[in-house]
Amino acid sequence: xxxxxxxxxxxxxxxxxxxxxxxxxxxxxxxxxxxxxxxxxxxxxxxxxxxxxxxxxxxxxxxxxxxxxxxxxxxxxxxxxxxxxxxxxxxxxxxxxxxxxxxxxxxxxxxxxxxxxxxxxxxxxxxxxxxxxxxxxxxxxxxxxxxxxxxxxxxxxxxxxxxxxxxxxxxxxxxxxxxxxxxxxxxxxxxxxxxxxxxxxxxxxxxxxxxxxxxxxxxxxxxxxxxxxxxxxxxxxxxxxxxxxxxxxxxxxxxxxxxxxxxxxxxxxxxxxxxxxxxxxxxxxxxxxxxxxxxxxxxxxxxxxxxxxxxxxxxxxxxxxxxxxxxxxxxxxxxxxxxxxxxxxxxxxxxxxxxxxxxxxxxxxxxxxxxxxxxxxxxxxxxxxxxxxxxxxxxxxxxxxxxxxxxxxxxxxxxxxxxxxxxxxxxxxxxxxxxxxxxxxxxxxxxxxxxxxxxxxxxxxx
Length: 462
What we know:
It is a single chain. Strand 1 (11-15), helix 1 (19-29) and strand 2 form a beta-alpha-beta unit. The protein contains 19 helices and 16 strands. The strands form five sheets. It has a five-stranded parallel β-sheet, with helices on both faces. The protein has a five-stranded parallel β-sheet with strand order 9-12-15-8-16. A two-stranded antiparallel ribbon has the order 6-7. The protein starts with 10 loop residues before the first strand and ends with a helix. By secondary structure, the chain is an alpha/beta fold. The longest helix is centred in the N-terminal third of the chain and has 26 residues, at 114-139. 45% of the residues lie in helices and 13% in strands.
C-alpha cells in the first residue's frame, strides 16, 4: 500500500555475499527514506526474517552458501507474499526467468542502475503492503475508523473528522462542498448526530430533484386551497426541521426565484406558506451542500451573492476518493460485509487481484460508485472469493500505468508492446514528464522516446 497505511518507513533486507555491495546499497537507499538491513549470507538472512517483518528483500543471484534461486524458494515457502527482487549479471536473462519461476517478484541487472532499482523496490513495497492489508481485512471485519456515518482512516479523513466535530459543537450554518458521491449527506448526518440538536429531526431535500413550484411548497409549506390538489394545510421542511437540522443538498441548483425567499426565511427565522397570510416561526440549523463552485456561480449571476455569504459561514470540503486511496479497501470491505449480510450469503473475500484493481481505479463516482461496484460484485460472485470478472466493466477494463511482472494469472498478462508502453508512461509520470530524465532511465535517446510517444497518442486516438 501507500505510505499512508504504515507509520514506519519501508523495510528492506539486502542479501549479498559481497560486503562492499551491501554497504553501497545501504548508503544509497537509506537517504531515500528506507530502513535497510543487510546480511552477507542467505542463512543469516533467513534467521533475520523469522525475527523481523520486512517489506521487500533484495538478493544477489549467485551466493556461495545458497543460490538466489534456492533463497527465493525458501522465502516464498516460509514468508508468502514477501516480494524478493533479484540482482543478476547483465545478460543473464535465463537465470532471471528461473528466479521469477522460483517466486521472485522482479529482477534488476548488474551493474545496477539505481533509478531502476528504486522503481523496482517501490513496486515491490506497494505489492507487499497490499497483501498485508488484504490479510488484515480478512482477519478484522469491524470498522473502527469512522465518524458518524463516514468511514476512513486516511490523513484527509482524520482532518475532516476534526473539522466536523468542531463545527458540530457550534450551532452555525455549514456549507459542505465536494464531488458527487463523496459523502456530503453523510457528513451532514454526522454534524447533526454530534450536535445538541441530535434528539430533534434531521430533514433533507435535494434542490435539484423537484421543479420550482413543488420546491417552494416543500420548503415553505402551503395552506389548503393554495393551488389545485392542495386540499389541506402542509408544513414545509423548514418548519418540520424545527429544533433540528435542515440539509439542503445541491443548493447550487436552486432556482434564482427561490433564492431570495430562502434568504429571507433564514434571516427572519420564519416562513410564509404558499397561499398563506401568516408567518410561522421556526428554529432549524442549516447545513447546505453542493458539487458546484458557488463563487463562480455568483460571478456568473446564477447564484445570489448575499445567499452565498449567508450559507458559507463554515465551509467544509470532502476529499474525493482518489485522494484518499488508503480508505478504498476499508470501504470496499465494509460494503462487501454489508451486502453479504443483506443477501444472507457467506462472507465474500476480497482477493489481492481484485484489491489491486480497486486501488488502480480512479473512482470518478467516488464512494457511491465503490458502493455500487461492491454490491454488483457480491451479487454476481459464485464462490466465496470475489473475482475480477465480478467487477463492473469500467473497473475491470481500466488500464493502470503500472504492472507487476510476477503475475501468474493469464488474464493479467499483457503483450510486450503494451508492457513497454505502460512502463514508459509510468516512468514519465514518475519524473513529472521530464523527457531527458525519462530517456536516461529507459536507456533511449530523446528522438526514439519522442517517436514512441507520438505512436502512443495516435493509437489511443483511434
